[in-house]
Design goal:
It is a single chain. The protein is α+β, with helices and mostly antiparallel strands and about 475 residues long. The protein has helices at about 15-20, 30-40, 110-125, 160-170, 175-190, 200-220, 270-290, 295-325, 330-345, 350-360, 365-370, 380-390, 395-405, 415-425, 430-440; strands at about 10-15, 55-60, 60-65, 70-80, 85-90, 105, 130-140, 145-155, 220-225, 245. The strands form 3 sheets. Strands 1, 4, 5, 6, 7 and 8 form a 6-stranded antiparallel β-sheet that branches. The chain has a two-stranded antiparallel sheet with strand order 2-3. A two-stranded antiparallel ribbon has the order 9-10. α10 (about 350-360) runs antiparallel to α13 (about 395-405). The radius of gyration is 23 Å and the shape is globular.
């Protein structure tokens, strides 16, 4: 059992009351002072025995056999109102056995970033960990400069990672791998129990969820920034919103993370990296897949091949929806890739372009779309093809509604997150709250939130994002 660090003057920034109710946690009789004490770890919930979890991981392709929660503590598990088991975890609550030379604390900025982005993901309908609370500790955290400290409370289906399996594999603990795999089946993939080989079925199921997840990331222009194997959750949730960012203008090579100096985790590289991570999981599971090593490798390779097929299918499905296409046209993939290339050449904003195209589908003037491109060369020919493809008898307003249901009006734009953080550093959390509230309805086009949809001016552009350690 580990103990959270002392916070002498904790202050509640925000608590997610709807999520608390979903978890079966009553906050009705707790004032902000007590909630600050609870969510900074000064008062532990009854029955909580905080622990830091061990895991290994490939970090930028280099294997580290001993990682673990260096600044996180798992408080425990709850059964939510739907009957699902959920983890509740502190981040930034102090040193653990895995902190190495770090202090285990979190600065205010990364805590606010994770709160904003994780709740935005939930509203967008993409599997992700959730934000339960954010608390300022009243303590200083020393990085390059002194910064206000904070603690984030995260909720996850579980915190089991590819790196968790690697931890046991690195120690040659086949029995530990089997115990962990059986637990994962019970907790996340009970449907594979009936398979002829549950462990092969488990690998395929995990690969399938990851393929779907990465396709959804690409469909909203999301760049995780640090897709190490210890940051890939076995449950299929997006986890660890560190140096993440969203595309403004479309560029498949775009990188924001300050620590990704060679573009390993660039926007367009994410599917390949996810498959690479699944390959590392497959290596851990080989002893369970078949007693015959050759057959085990064959089963693993089959699952990896399926990942590629499943990703391509999920990606095409997502972008068909974004373009308003129904059915399966044989030239649909080319239509999508041609449009993305036009966006790249025209330096078009990823989010606003698809929203504008939705309006054109509903009968708006084509200038609505053309205005989003610096150089719209070739766009007229593409629009002719597109109009012919969507002309399937549906009313224009129905096509527009369908497209706007998958093409968000609001995303957590990098410069707006930075604006919220900078204001908070001076004690003003009003913009942070406004941003979280607005992003809870990302598909609603409300005039009062129009400023939040605007791409950054040159002086507002965020070019680098940072890890929260």
């Amino acid at each position: 059992m580990a103990k959270p660090a002392t916070a002498r003057a904790p202050q509640l920034i925000r608590v997610n009351r709807p999520l608390a109710a979903e978890l079966g946690i009553s906050l009705d009789h707790a004032d902000d002072t007590r909630l600050a004490q609870v969510f900074s770890g000064q008062i532990l919930p009854v029955g909580a025995e905080p622990i830091a979890q061990a895991y290994s991981g490939h970090q930028f392709g280099h294997f580290n056999p001993q990682l673990g929660d260096g600044r996180a503590l798992l408080l425990g598990e709850v059964i939510d109102r739907s009957g699902a088991r959920r983890d509740i975890q502190f981040k930034g609550s102090g040193r653990t056995a895995f902190s190495r030379s770090g202090d285990g604390l979190a600065a205010l900025g990364p805590v606010l970033r994770e709160y904003i982005v994780s709740e935005a993901f939930h509203a967008l309908g993409i599997p992700a960990t959730r934000a339960l609370a954010a608390v300022a500790t009243g303590e200083q955290v020393i990085r390059e400069i002194a910064l206000p400290g904070a603690v984030f409370t995260r909720v996850a289906a579980s915190h089991i990672r590819v790196g968790t399996f690697q931890y046991f594999a690195a120690r040659g603990d086949t029995e530990g791998i089997k115990t962990l795999a059986d637990h994962v089946i019970s907790r996340h993939y009970p449907e594979v129990r009936q398979a002829d080989n549950p462990y092969v079925a488990l690998l395929r199921a995990i690969a399938g969820r990851q393929a779907s997840l990465i396709a959804r990331w690409l469909s909203i222009g999301f760049i995780h920034g640090v897709m190490n194997t210890d940051n890939m959750a076995i449950s299929g949730e997006t986890i660890d919103f560190g140096p993440c960012a969203f595309l403004d203008e479309y560029d498949p090579r775009k990188v924001f993370s300050s620590i990704d100096q060679h573009g390993r985790y660039a926007y367009a590289n994410q599917p390949g990296i996810a498959q690479w991570n699944i390959a590392r999981l497959a290596e851990c599971l080989l002893p369970l897949l078949d007693e015959d090593e050759d057959k085990a490798v064959e089963a693993a390779n089959s699952a990896l091949s399926e990942f590629g097929d499943l990703f391509q299918s999920a990606w095409l499905h997502a972008f068909r929806q974004k373009l308003g296409l129904t059915g399966e046209g044989e030239d649909d993939r080319l239509m999508v890739t041609d449009f993305l290339e036009l966006m790249h050449q025209g330096e078009a904003d990823f989010t606003l372009v698809f929203r504008a195209l939705s309006k054109v589908a509903g009968g708006a003037a084509v200038e609505t779309l053309l205005d989003q491109f610096k150089t719209p060369l070739g766009l007229s020919d593409w629009l002719t093809r597109w109009r012919a493809r969507i002309d399937d008898g549906r009313p224009q307003d129905a096509v527009q509604r369908a497209m706007e249901a998958v093409n968000p009006y609001l995303i957590p734009r990098n410069h707006r997150i930075e604006e919220a953080i900078q204001a908070a550093l001076y004690g003003d959390f009003s913009f942070f709250h406004r941003l979280v509230d607005a992003l809870a309805k990302p598909y609603d086009e409300e005039p009062a939130q129009a400023d939040l949809a605007i791409p950054p001016a040159p002086e507002e552009r965020v070019t680098r994002t940072f890890c929260g350690t």
